[in-house]
Write a structure and sequence with these properties.
- The chain folds into two domains: 2-45 and 165-203; 52-162, Umud Fragment, subunit A (Ribbon).
- Helices cover 48% and strands 20% of the residues.
- The protein has three helices and seven strands.
Length: 216
């Protein structure tokens, strides 16, 4: 009878541990990559303040205007990859530092509508926003190129902006970290209770077995 109860307790314990472990894996899988990428991008932005931060050659950026609507909308997050200027063609969407700004501030993402070869072999790109009526006023020298647009994630830019606010930091960073610590505490308590329950359940049987061996 006690053996059956012990088996049921151990089975319930295994199910509970699996459930808690799955929750922990989901939380860690969501939070840790975000924290690692953010820390890398933050470090690069500190040591290279004039450059757009990159991770594995990719730069995530938030779109703040609708100049490329409907392909790209304000609030989207775009992924831009560094590319050789010679491989860029008309029709590609590129991100570049504003050529009208001497400092590398203000990144624009527009479509290439024309390419010119300079005497020194470098290229300049004529660009235009899909939603704009006229091309951009100043061609883009290749040294102002950030990269080529590869993918957009709708609304994720708004989420990233929210994460920079105090409420966003609390909800998206502090709270998940607290959940991870709570998960670890719960898992330890479950293990301790199971060990205590197993010891209390098996000790009488061991004592009975010892008494029987002495009697025999």
């Amino acid at each position: 009878m006690k053996t059956e109860e012990n088996k049921k307790r151990r089975a319930r314990g295994r199910v509970c541990r699996r459930g808690v472990t799955i929750v922990g894996i989901v939380i860690c899988g969501f939070v840790l990559p975000i924290l690692v990428v953010n820390l890398i991008l933050l470090a690069k932005s500190i040591f290279e303040p004039e450059e757009v931060p990159r991770f594995l050659g990719l730069s995530p950026m938030i779109v703040v205007t609708n100049s490329m609507d409907p392909a790209i909308s304000a609030g989207d997050m775009i992924i831009v990859r560094r590319e050789d200027p010679d491989l860029i063609n008309v029709g590609d969407v590129i991100s570049f530092y504003n050529p009208q700004n001497i400092e590398k501030k203000g990144v624009i993402t527009h479509r290439v509508i024309g390419i010119e070869e300079e005497a020194d072999g470098t290229r300049t790109f004529t660009t235009k926003g899909d939603a704009n009526n006229t091309p951009d006023p100043v061609p883009v020298p290749e040294e102002r190129l950030v990269g080529v647009y590869k993918e957009s994630i709708p609304y994720l830019g708004n989420v990233a902006l929210f994460m920079k606010t105090p409420g966003g930091m609390l909800l998206c960073v502090v709270l998940p970290l607290c959940l991870i610590m709570l998960y670890d505490m719960i898992l330890r308590q479950i293990r301790e209770k199971q060990e205590a329950s197993y010891r209390s359940a098996t000790r009488p049987d061991e004592i009975t077995a010892a008494l029987r061996s002495k009697t025999l």
